[in-house]
Automatic annotation (TrEMBL):
The keyword Transport applies. It is found in: Cell inner membrane. GO terms for cellular component: plasma membrane. The lineage of its organism: Bacteria, Pseudomonadati, Pseudomonadota, Alphaproteobacteria, Rhodobacterales. This is TRAP transporter small permease protein. The keyword Membrane applies. The complex comprises the extracytoplasmic solute receptor protein and the two transmembrane proteins. Residues 26-160 form the Tripartite ATP-independent periplasmic transporters DctQ component domain. GO terms for molecular function: transmembrane transporter activity. Belongs to the TRAP transporter small permease family. It is a multi-pass membrane protein. Part of the tripartite ATP-independent periplasmic (TRAP) transport system.
Amino acid sequence: MLKTADMLDAINRRLASVLRWFAIFMVLIQFGIVIGRYVFGVNSIWVQESVLYLHAALFMLAAGYTLQVDKHVRVDIFYAKASPTTRRRIDIAGHLFLLLPSVAVLAWWSWPSVRNSWKILEGPISVGGIEAVFLLKSLIPAFCALVALQSLAILLRLFAGEGEE
């Protein structure tokens, strides 16, 4: 079980090592947009949308890694003061009854929109923008898959008893 969990962890870890560069690219592109607009009077909607695409990809595709390194939002009312056994039970219940069903519903309800977007190769958000909204919408099922895989990895570790104190 732990080998499988390690393999699932590796997917999000490798992806995160690429995605971290998106933040730097976003800052550089945004800096270029500001310089171009206010110093040279030049503007490009395509370049502006590239920041949006990078941000969306960074946020959606790094969510699994965020879950992996335990930096996600956690409602800490009972969890913080709970015993390790109670924490383990809360984690298992949260993954099985909240997280996995939520990403499954999100994937199910978003799929028709994603499929239709690919069918027509949906164009830009704005005139002169990036002609790939279908790629932007594809981030939704990718997000669902990556978070679900990470949730499964965490569940495998929890069921194997790893992390118990």
